[in-house]
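quick q for whoever's on today - can somebody do inverse folding on this one?? i tried earlier but teh output was garbage lol. tokens:
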């Protein structure tokens, strides 16, 4: 975990544009107005990290069009380093998510046709100066297609050669993969190459071939000395598996207005808190608080808390509960 404490993260994965129906509660098909901001799991994590005082660089490709430029502008707005964001022409497109600020009958429409972030190459990841970072992070979606799958495995090897810890957010999105069998095999390989693995019960269960086998899969992965595995269970909290221990933590109840963004905010809060010197259990709880904050506000990147907002939430909010 020493690399995480260095607080300089290279993050592999996608940036996208989020359109969220306005006002809160309205369904997308009934909305007259949509808010727009940065989206995509890895970009959200980067924004969350920087808001919490970390340094983050995104390694990805974006389209050479207005949507790609919008994403680049928002990354810059949040203070994310874009030195390794490659602009790609042609027919590849930056992802778009259209969703709403409501939990009942929630709808999230994802446009991933010809996704430009899948076009990251081994040359792209070899350009990264790994010596300028102290940890690398990858979200699982980058492994769903070539060439980004092979490129990201190459990046993990480069990180290992540079002595950097590898953080893996399983982030399984079925619609991105050619088949469940391919996904289970590739994500398991990525997990085996990682030092800190974060996922929910469904994702570990998927990797294991059945949700009832998910916790055993997490325990198996945590058997490697020095590896930390965080097994999230939604409203039931999380179990952190580290050094032969199983640390159970709860959640901070809030009136959620949407179900998306929690995982990205959890990851940002967890890593920034480890970097700030918090013990692992406390860092997990701060990540959980970040997740609660994000689901209670519109958007994902704009809803990510700053350190002062996180501290104020913790000081005023009852919890955690299981």
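ok took a stab at it. sequence:
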């Amino acid at each position: 975990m020493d690399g995480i404490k260095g607080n300089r993260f290279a993050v592999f994965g996608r940036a996208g544009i989020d359109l969220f129906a306005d006002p809160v509660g309205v369904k997308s098909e009934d909305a007259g107005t949509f808010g727009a901001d940065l989206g995509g799991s890895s970009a959200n994590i980067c924004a969350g990290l920087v808001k919490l005082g970390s340094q983050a660089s995104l390694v990805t490709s974006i389209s050479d069009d207005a949507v790609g430029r919008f994403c680049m502008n928002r990354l810059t707005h949040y203070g994310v380093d874009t030195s390794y964001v490659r602009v790609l022409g042609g027919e590849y497109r930056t992802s778009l998510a259209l969703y709403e600020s409501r939990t009942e009958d929630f709808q999230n429409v994802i446009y991933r046709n010809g996704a430009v972030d899948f076009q990251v190459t081994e040359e792209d990841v070899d350009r990264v100066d790994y010596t300028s970072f102290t940890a690398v992070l990858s979200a699982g979606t980058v492994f769903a297609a070539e060439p980004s799958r092979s490129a990201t495995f190459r990046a993990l090897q480069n990180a290992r050669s540079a002595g950097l810890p590898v953080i893996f957010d399983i982030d399984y999105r079925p619609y991105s993969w050619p088949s469940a069998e391919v996904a289970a095999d590739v994500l398991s390989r990525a997990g085996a190459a990682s030092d800190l693995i974060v996922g929910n019960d469904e994702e570990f269960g998927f990797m294991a071939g059945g949700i009832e086998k998910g916790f055993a899969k997490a325990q198996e992965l945590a058997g490697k000395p020095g590896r930390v595995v965080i097994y999230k269970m939604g409203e039931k909290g999380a179990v952190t598996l580290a050094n032969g221990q199983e640390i159970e933590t709860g959640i901070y109840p809030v009136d959620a207005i949407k179900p998306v963004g929690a995982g990205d905010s959890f990851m940002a809060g967890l890593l920034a808190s480890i970097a700030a010197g918090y013990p692992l259990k406390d860092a997990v709880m701060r990540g959980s608080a970040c997740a609660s904050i994000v689901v209670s506000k519109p958007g994902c990147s704009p809803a990510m808390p700053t350190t002062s907002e996180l501290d104020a939430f913790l000081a005023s909010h009852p919890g955690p509960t299981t």
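fwiw DSSP finds eleven helices and 13 strands in the chain. also The first strand starts at residue 8 and ends at 12. so keep that in mind when u check it
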